[in-house]
């Protein structure tokens, strides 16, 4: 009896299994393992005696110019792409439903088309009439963007091969299906096959392609992780439903810096660029109150000032609550432990709430000192100096460690009217730009000097 060559794949994380099971061992999801036929059978006994062609090799030294870039005129989008769109590149963009991915890409396609690029927008989720209605609402009906609605991968590739556009937008990759794969649209095999064919077509024909990807409930792009490895750039479009601000963040970019961000504001006429995000995130900051600290951070190459807010209140629960929004909860727990173990400042029996104003998300270790400052300010009911910004990493011993790009952080703070900086004692600063620098050696000294605690 011939052995079955079908594979069992988890539709949630893409992990392969030898047989069907109710629960995926890799991600823990239930009822997500499906049986799929392989994409190709492959050779059974090696490659045989037939030789292939020799691949030409070259040295690392080159005189080739860097790849040319096409600017859209949307500075925030161009910044996240690394300085413009590279021909032949593949960009994957993900985000929550309704966050504005289609709006952003339609505005981007119109901006590139008005600068002379041949742009094609293929929608697999909406009819052409729906996309035209959005274009009219955004004032883009006169943009020279050609529109199509199709989900058949073969028909899409044939259309792109005939039209030879400079830019193609596929919305979304989860809706495409290939007649060579026996699986439903959106399955692991279909997403992998569609992404592979589109990326290969982009490299072979020199067409820049944007792929829209759905996200899971954890916020990660759905489908196999191999799709993120295939493309050149992975971008997330983030934001809270209650906030009008949207953040475009690159987590992978082969043609520019990763972790670069672009900030937009959702308006009735579409997404508007925010040229100075620091002023935006601090715009609603009024009189100094306990529990507020301003952090001078770096997002990619851009300095951004954000407000870290903390609230500490007595808890009526056996296990006090720790609610964190916009920060790493594990990092916050570590800082709370260091405050108690090294500084003698307990938070037992107290509910702790932390938030980054404006819907921003901060992942830098340099935010440790600002988090500790907000927590101590809330606990001691004492406001930090309103003209001060904070940055510095906290070690497990309680010592403050220096961070990178201190000069850029201070320049951005001074531009917004801040005159004092609280930073680690070992931080090297060349040219503080007239700002008063207050150096602190460790967390115990910080709690004692600023709040008189510890």
Strand content: 15-25%
Q: Give the structural class.
A: alpha/beta
Tally of DSSP helical segments: 11
The unreliable regions are: 39-43
| pLDDT averaged residue by residue | 89
Computed over alpha carbons, the radius of gyration is 26 Å
End-to-end separation in angstroms reads: 75 Å
Q: What characterizes the major β-sheet?
A: 9 strands, mixed
Shape: globular
Family: Belongs to the RecA family. RadA subfamily.
Pfam family, one: ChlI
Motif (RadA KNRFG motif): 252-256
Protein name: DNA repair protein RadA
Topology:
Blueprint: E1 7-10, E2 16-17, E3 33-36, H1 75-80, E4 90-95, H2 101-114, E5 119-123, H3 128-137, E6 145-149, H4 153-163, E7 167-171, H5 188-205, E8 208-213, H6 226-230, E9 233-238, E10 245-253, E11 261-267, E12 270-273, H7 277-281, E13 292-299, E14 302-314, E15 322-325, H8 329-343, E16 350-356, H9 368-380, E17 388-390, E18 393-394, E19 400-401, H10 406-415, E20 420-424, E21 436-440, H11 443-451
Parallel strand pairs: 4-8, 4-9, 5-6, 5-7, 7-8, 15-16, 17-20, 20-21
Antiparallel strand pairs: 1-2, 1-3, 9-10, 10-11, 11-12, 13-14, 14-16, 18-19
Helix pairs in contact: 9-11
């Amino acid at each position: 009896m011939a052995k079955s060559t079908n594979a069992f794949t988890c539709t949630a994380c893409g992990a392969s299994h030898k047989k069907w099971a109710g629960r995926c061992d890799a991600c823990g999801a239930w009822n997500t393992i499906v049986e799929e036929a392989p994409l190709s059978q492959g050779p059974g006994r090696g490659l045989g005696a037939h030789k292939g062609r020799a691949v030409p090799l070259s040295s690392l030294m080159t005189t080739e110019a860097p790849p040319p870039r096409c600017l859209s005129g949307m500075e925030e989008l161009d910044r996240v792409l690394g300085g413009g769109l590279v021909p032949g590149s593949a960009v994957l963009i993900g985000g929550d439903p309704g966050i504005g991915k289609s709006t952003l890409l339609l505005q981007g396609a119109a901006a590139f088309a008005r600068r002379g690029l041949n742009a094609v927008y293929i929608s697999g989720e909406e009819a052409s009439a729906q996309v035209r209605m959005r274009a009219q609402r955004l004032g883009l009906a006169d943009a020279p963007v050609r529109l199509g609605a199709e989900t058949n991968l073969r028909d899409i590739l044939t259309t792109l091969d005939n039209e030879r556009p400079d830019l193609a937008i596929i919305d979304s990759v989860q809706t495409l299906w290939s007649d060579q794969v026996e699986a439903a649209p959106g399955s692991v095999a279909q997403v992998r096959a569609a992404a592979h064919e589109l990326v290969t077509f982009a490299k072979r024909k020199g067409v820049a392609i944007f792929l829209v990807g759905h996200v899971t409930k954890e916020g990660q792009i759905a489908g196999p992780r191999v799709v993120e490895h295939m493309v050149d750039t992975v971008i997330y479009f983030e934001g809270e439903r209650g906030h009008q601000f949207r953040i475009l963040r690159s987590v992978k970019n082969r043609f520019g810096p990763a972790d670069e961000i672009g900030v937009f504001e959702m308006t009735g006429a579409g997404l508007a660029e925010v040229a100075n995000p620091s002023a935006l995130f601090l715009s609603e900051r009024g009189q100094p109150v306990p529990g507020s600290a301003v952090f001078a951070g770096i997002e990619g190459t851009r300095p951004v000032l954000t407000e870290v807010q903390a609230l500490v209140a007595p808890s009526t629960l056996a296990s006090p609550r720790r609610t964190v929004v916009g920060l790493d909860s594990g990092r916050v727990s570590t800082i709370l432990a260091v405050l108690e173990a090294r500084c003698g400042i307990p938070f037992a029996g107290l509910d702790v709430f932390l938030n980054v104003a404006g819907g921003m998300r901060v992942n830098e270790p340099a935010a440790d000192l600002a988090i500790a400052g907000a927590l101590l300010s809330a606990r001691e009911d004492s406001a930090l100096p309103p003209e001060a910004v904070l940055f510095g990493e906290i070690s497990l011993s309680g010592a403050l460690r220096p961070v990178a790009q201190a000069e850029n952080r201070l320049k951005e703070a001074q531009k917004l009217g801040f005159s004092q900086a609280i930073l680690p004692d070992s931080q090297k600063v060349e040219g503080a730009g007239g700002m008063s620098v207050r150096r602190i050696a460790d967390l115990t000294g910080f709690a004692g000097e600023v709040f008189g605690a510890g």
